[in-house]
Amino acid sequence: MTIDKSWTTIRRRGSSNEFWNGLQHFLQMAKPFVNDRGFIKCPCRRCLNNASHQLEDLESHIFRNGFMFGYNQWIHHGEPATANAETTVAGPSGGIHERDEMFDVLDDIISEDADEDAVRGPSSNVQYDDLFAALRSELYPGVSSFSSLNFLVKLMHLKVLNKWTNKSFDELLKLLKLAFPKIDLVESHYEAKKLMTKMGLGYSSIHVCKNDCALFWKENSLKDTCPVCSESRWKLQSGKRAGKNVPHKVLRYFLVGPRLKRLFATSKTAKLMRWHSTGKSKDNNVMRHPVDGKSWQEFDKRHPQFAGDVRNVRLGLAADGFNPFGNMSLSYSMWHVVLTTYNLPPWICMKAEYLMLSLLIPGPQSPGKDMDVFLRPLIDELKELWVHGLDTRDAAYENGVFRMRAALLWTVNDFPARSSLSGWSGQGYRACPTCNEDTPSMRVIGKTTYFGYRRFLPTNHHWRSNLQFDGRTERKRPPRRFSTTDILEQLHRVKTGIPGKHPNYGGVKQKRGDDELNWRKKSIFYELPYWVDIELKHNLDVMHIEKNVCNSLLGTLLADPHKSKDTDNARRDLAKLGIRQELHLFENDNKLMKPAADYTFSEGNRRKFCRFIISVKFPYGFASNQSKNVAQNDSRLLGLKSHDCHVIMQRLLPVGCRSLVSKNIWGTIVELCTFFKQLCASTVNVSDMVEAQKQLVLILCKLE
After folding, report:
1. What is the per-residue pLDDT for 90?
2. pLDDT tens readout for residues 545-573
3. Phi, psi of 364 (to 5 degrees)
4. Torsion of CA 310, 312, 318, 323, to 10 degrees
5. What are the residues whose beta carbons fall under 8 Å from the beta carbon of 305, sequence distance 6 or more?
6. CB contact at 8 A, 320 and 413
7. What phi and psi values does residue 317 have, to the nearest 5 degrees?
8. 18 vs 614, higher pLDDT
9. What angle, rounded to 10 degrees, do the helices at 166-179 and 189-196 form?
10. In 3D, which of 570, 300, 346, 589 has the Cα closest to residue 446?
11. Is 146 helix (H, G, I), strand (E, B) or coil?
């Protein structure tokens, strides 16, 4: 008797009655052949007849994972063995096909639907029909190694890697169609994007007011004018709408929940999502991952129900601006908001493939104070993930469907982006968000400067009475630590402003009252139910800080006229304060003379230092070629990237300047570079960092 096995190759298992009926017939056939404990070999694509399960588990395994390839004669499940058993599997369209790697991809995509169908039986689900049609079709008659879908995915991947334009991609498709008339391929990039969207690679386009006042989303989705400034949603020509509606700005929003579910769809990443619980440091004095920090641990104490399931996701958010036009003179600032998953181990969570782009904010201007307008879709989804969560299949366990919840633990940004996200302005006399209203600052020529690091010294330290700092003794104590209650009281006094940049509405510059301090707004993050309880809400990116410090330090040492902090105005400020008379400007023959400082290299030493940078050879992949950053006259360093500054600060500068400046200055530079080296270590010792913080106060006082 011939056994119908065609159902084993059906990929759309959740919506196929044929697969369901074939599976039930297979189980009835295998039932008499279970062992005395009720177990039988499992032919799903994960067990591959290597593991045995009870019959009811076989049903869920095969329905979820699919029937294994190459098992054409069911000798372990009741079919008599024959000598001429075939070893190939009929493809979904009836022909003989090699296994296509896209089978596994689609199985992961529809796994959640399949789990639900396994409980309630097959349902009517046609949303993946186009994907399966592309998977079943041969790319070209006679070519069984490539399906149409597989070829298209690889082609789109090449487009991204090599930065092809949409037009060039369309022209390539036309050429392929012309050269191979029988090729089964989409007609345009637009059609390819529509197909990729069904694989979870799409995004939502949300129209934005031209003045950044509001999103045309949810209650505003059908409006043609901005609810704040009444400007038209569409681009107009001569005061009239052009033929096709073209919005002024478009925000691209990428859903977070489906991508978090995808992390649990494969057993490998599903196990890694528990690393923060199983791999954290056992030594309370050692930190190598955020889970070892105080902020994470305090969050778990305040929310024990969330912390009770280690599969719940902890997220970090980063935002920054970039110019999509590269080095062109066109000024344009587009912002991206990226999420990272801290459940993963530290050597994985920061890799590009595990970073999730959530928002792409259009320019040409940076969002600034209107950042909350663009964050609205993300915040709404984060609230949903915290309160309700998502039913998620956990591939690391056989019967693992759980309610996944997610929480945003903090943001990581440079200082200007922190101002946009937190609402505390990073400019003015109270720029420091930690010192708050106690920020030590004063006005000098052309800018506000921040000083007074002696406040952090012990009260009996002899530097407190030294007049060489600013001409005065220092008797103030360190700035107080502001509690969450203090911050909420300050935010309660902040007036709600009008969003946007319209000159008659949100663009009107309003003077802050003294009781508002440096707050420009109450951040949208406070809408998250747990945000108040987070001890460390906004982090500063150490790579940005290290780059800024390196550029300022090198600019001053090399007397770079564009980057040096030792400017003419700085010398005039010294004269006003009445300190360091040897550095004051003076006139000689009607010329303004600037005395040489002992913290800058002489002209000969500048060349020595730059030649030292050129001479250093690094192992392959350790650093870029530093010689390309040296100016032609061997007197300046130009175009340093973040990693260049990282290498110079921690490897080259302590060695290169040793014989070029005095011992006191060289020692201070070495101490500063050592601090950054400790801060950037992959494993941090808590007691060492406490001591490093004390040393940093002394370093800043020496620099001051």
Report:
1. 37
2. 999 999 999 999 999 988 999 999 999 99
3. -80, -15
4. 120
5. none
6. yes
7. -120, 135
8. 614
9. 100
10. 570
11. coil
